[in-house]
Amino acid sequence: MPANLPPQYIEVEKRYREAKDPEEKLLLLKELLAIIPKHKGTEKLQADLKRKISKLGDQLQSRRGSGRRMAPYRVEPEGAARVVLVGEPNSGKSSILASLTNASPQVASYPYTTQLPQPGMMPYQDIQIQLVDLPPISPEYREPWVFDLIRGSDLILLVADLGRPAVEQVRYLQGELEGRSISKPLVLVGNKVDLDGEGEQSKLLEGAFGESLPTIFVSALKGEGVDSLPEKIFNSLKLVRVYSKVPGKKPDMEQPFVFPQGTTVLEVATAIHKEVAARFKYARIWGEGKPGGIMVPTDYMVKDGDILEIHHS
Ligand SMILES: Nc1nc2c(ncn2[C@@H]2O[C@H](COP(=O)(O)OP(=O)(O)OP(=O)(O)O)[C@@H](O)[C@H]2O)c(=O)[nH]1
Ligand SMILES: [Mg+2]
């Protein structure tokens, strides 16, 4: 073993050798990978750790089977929608979560910092959207259950690190998603724009994906560009906010109901109150570009910001 390993590493390695439980062994291996100094002299050791992690991870996964899931990997849904942060190690996923929500995830300069899903709530105007930070996905190692959480989301924030070749990262991540038949709305985030001196990586990313994906360049570290992320996310989620109004009263502008675009008045009525829907007579709508309180048919598709007054028998 090279002599220049820090005492912390030696100590964790001892625990790893003594551990019996494979789950614990896996966690300790990941910890070793996280704390090992990253330089030429340890490259072989790093590769060795990654191999062990990958092998043990696969063994555990096949033993667990597909039905059993461990509780920490579940995240309670909250807010109007769920957005997951997906990216290679160190791309800045946790930093983005920290800059958009009140969550305080661990952020560190070494890879594989995040090991469990970490939710936070992102405010956008009058609604809240749930962001879930995930462990990284890389050719060396990825947690199999990460893909279950991605599958359960409404949108993926694909985070690429502009400090290194970014197009390759996105293609790799897209391949991992496609290989599992995961198809979700995507927003592409080029992070660490502060490291992209001449803007070379940004240009390459824009050139490769700018036409097909909503793309945004930010620096989570400097706070640059992050302010426009919530709106980009909201627009890509394709949601509408509907405010309900009781006849003769002022509308409730505090708490909108949130639906996917394309939802009809009747579906809104059903969601708000099943019984109301059964006795539905007609609805009046107030909204942008509409004369105040026009009557709409039951199959009218509500628009973002509509105020809806349901009349029933
Ligand atoms: N220069 C620069 N560094 C950044 C930026 N965003 C994050 N970092 C740094 O990059 C490193 C990794 O950041 P994290 O937020 O932990 O990255 P991550 O994608 O969550 O990493 P894993 O959890 O290991 O997958 C940290 O040292 C951050 O301070 C940025 O916009 N610019
Ligand atoms: Mg992280």
Index terms:
313 residues; Ubiquitin-like (UB roll); six-stranded mixed sheet; 10 helices; binds magnesium ion
Q: Could you describe the 3D structure shown?
A:
- With 313 residues, the protein is an alpha/beta fold.
- Helices cover 35% and strands 20% of the residues.
- The chain folds into three domains: 7-64, no CATH class; 71-237, 3-Layer(aba) Sandwich (Rossmann fold), CATH 3.40.50; 239-312, Beta-grasp domain (Ubiquitin-like (UB roll), Roll).
- The strands form two sheets. It has a six-stranded mixed sheet, with helices on both faces.
- Strand 5, helix 7 and strand 6 form a beta-alpha-beta unit.
- Helix 1 runs antiparallel to helix 2 and helix 2 (22-35) runs antiparallel to helix 3 (43-64).
- It starts with 6 loop residues before the first helix and ends with a strand.
- The model has no long low-confidence stretch (mean pLDDT 91).
- Guanosine-5'-triphosphate binds at residues 87, 89-95, 107-109, 111-114, 136, 191-192, 194-195, 219-221.
CATH topology of the largest domain: Rossmann fold
Query: What is the β-strand count?
Result: 11
Q: Give a list of the ligands.
A: guanosine-5'-triphosphate, magnesium ion
Query: Strand order within the widest sheet?
Result: 2-3-1-4-5-6
User: What average pLDDT do the residues reach?
Assistant: 91
